[in-house]
Amino acid sequence: MEKSIALIGFMGVGKTTVGSFLSEKLNRKFIDVDKEIERHHNMKIRDMFATYGESMFREEEKKFITYYAKQPGVILSLGGGAFLQQEIKNICMEECLVLFLDISWETWRERLDELMEDRPVLRNKTEEEIKDLFEERKSVYAAHHERILTDDYTEEEVTETIIHQLNLK
Ligand SMILES: Nc1ncnc2c1ncn2[C@@H]1O[C@H](COP(=O)(O)OP(=O)(O)O)[C@@H](O)[C@H]1O
Ligand SMILES: O=C(O)C1=C[C@@H](OP(=O)(O)O)[C@@H](O)[C@H](O)C1
Ligand SMILES: [Mg+2]
Fold it and tell me: What is the SS3 assignment for 8?
C-alpha cells in the first residue's frame, strides 16, 4: 500500500477541500484531522480554543496525527498549525508524502473575511498581525516533499495538478 499523503499549508489555502477531492479521484480514504477532532469531542475547534485553550487542541492534534500518519494509503488534511510541533513534522515527513499547498499573500488576502469566523487563530488580530503570522509560518512549511503553488488554480485544478505532478492514479 502507498504512503499516505499529508496536505500542509496556511489556513484557508485549500487543504480540506483539495484533500476531499483527491480522495474521491484516487479512491482513497479521506481524513481531515480537524474534523476528526471536532467529531471526537462533539465540539467546534473555535469552542475548544475558547473553553480549554489552544494547548489542549494542540495535544489532540498531535494524538490524532500520530495515529493517522501511520495508516497507509490515506489522504490526510492537517490543520495549518500542525507542523508547529516538531514531533508531528517528524512523523509526517517519515511516514507520509508531505504536500505543501502554497499561496501568495495577495491571493490569500482575498479569503481573509470568509475565513475569520472558524479560525480562532485569526480572530482578534489586525491584518498586519495576520500578515506577520503568514510570513512566520513559511518556515514551518519548509519541511515538505512536494510544493504546489495554488494561486492561479481552482480547487479542482489544484487537485488535477497534484495528480499530474505526483504521477498518482
Ligand atoms: N484554489 C482555490 N481557489 C479559490 N478558493 C479556494 C481554493 N481552495 C480553497 N478555496 C476556498 O477557501 C476556503 C478554505 O478552504 P479549506 O479547504 O477549508 O482550506 P484549509 O483546509 O486549508 O483551511 C473555502 O471556502 C474554499 O472553498
Ligand atoms: O493554522 C492553525 O493554527 C490552525 C488551522 C486550522 O486548520 P485549517 O488550516 O484547515 O484552517 C485549525 O487546525 C485550527 O483552527 C488552527
Ligand atoms: Mg482545513
Answer: strand
Distance from Cα 46 to the centre of ligand 2, integer Å: 10
At a CB cut-off of 8 Å and minimum separation 6, what does 36 contact? 64, 68
0.90 surpassed by complex ipTM: yes
Position in ligand 1 atom list of the atom nearest CA 20: 17
Nearest atom in ligand 2 to the alpha carbon of residue 32 is 10
Ligand number, closest to the Cα atom of 19: 1
40 HSE (CA, 13 A, CB side): 14
CATH of 4-161, one of 3.40.50.2000, 3.40.50.300, 1.10.579.10, 1.10.3570.10: 3.40.50.300
Taking the C-alpha atoms of residue 125 and residue 132, their distance in angstroms, rounded to an integer, is 10
On whether the pTM is more than 0.95, the answer is yes
